Amino acid sequence: MHTPLITANYLAVLALIYAALALQVIRLRRSNAAAFNDGGNASLRSAIRAHGNFMEYVPIITLMVALLEMSGASSTRIHLLMGALVLSRLLHPFGMYATPGSLRFLVCRGGSIFLTIGLLISCALSILSRLPWAAVADEISDQAIATVQFLQVIHIILTL
Question: Residue 5: its pLDDT value, please?
Answer without folding.
Answer: 95
